[in-house]
Amino acid sequence: MKIRGKSVLVSGANRGIGRAFVDALLERGASTVFAGARSASNADALRAIDARVVPLHIDVTDRASIARAVERVEGLDLLINNAGSLVGYSLLESTREAVESDFAVNFWGALDLTKACLPKLEESRGAVLNMLTLVSMASMAAIGGYSASKAAAWSMTQALRKELGDRGITMFAAYPGAVDTDMIRSFEMDKTPPEVVAKNALDAVEAGTLDCFPDPMAQQAGAAWLKNPRDLEAMFANM
Ligand SMILES: NC(=O)c1ccc[n+]([C@@H]2O[C@H](COP(=O)([O-])OP(=O)(O)OC[C@H]3O[C@@H](n4cnc5c(N)ncnc54)[C@H](OP(=O)(O)O)[C@@H]3O)[C@@H](O)[C@H]2O)c1
Fold first, then answer.
1. Is 89 in the active site?
2. Which of 84, 143, 202, 239 is the least buried, fewest Cβ under 10 Å from its Cβ?
3. What local confidence, expressed as pLDDT, does residue 131 receive?
């Protein structure tokens, strides 16, 4: 799918990788970028970026908020399920509520938003891009709650690839490594700028590459996983 002239919805568009997606989509000539933000004030602030940006107030954990926002979307070619939460750390030490809130955003939020956009995507024979992570493939114990929610989102992605495919909709997925955003601000490690991740993920969508490893860490770890999934598990166990 070429981005030029297309209408795209990005959840969690107010900062981090989501904000980088907005800029990259505009640069590639998207006709409309529906920029979702959980808070109304963050959504309003997105209006100033460009006349093609339509801010939408969407809390992906609130189905009424999703329905109200999607009602304002006239045509849609690409949905980017980008909104994400990392509050579930060690599975033994995190509260159940913390892990549940990662599932609410990372699994249920992405699924509910996809279902709400389905009629519009079916009409355009469009696409969905799910922002997953390397820890969808092999859990990192220090963020075991988040990893479990993203593993569930990966399983959901695989199931929807078949079900959306039957309706003419293409399911893309990106599996970044460490990206330099607020989400992992306190982690000391090499990180890739969000602009690079957004660019490479959109290159994959434009090239029709269904699974994308959008940064150097992702490429290395993804290759290890393809060779032997236990190698990635062992690598992450020591991080
Ligand atoms: N950073 C990394 O190293 C990394 C690596 C692999 C994958 N990813 C994935 O990439 C995506 C973007 O991550 P990021 O690093 O840009 O994270 P981030 O800087 O923490 O930003 C997260 C975004 O998601 C939004 N969000 C959270 N809960 C939401 C909700 N209930 N409804 C709507 N929006 C919500 C946030 O909105 P508020 O501003 O209102 O909180 C914010 O816009 C996530 O899916 C993440 O899991 C990130």
1. no
2. 239
3. 99
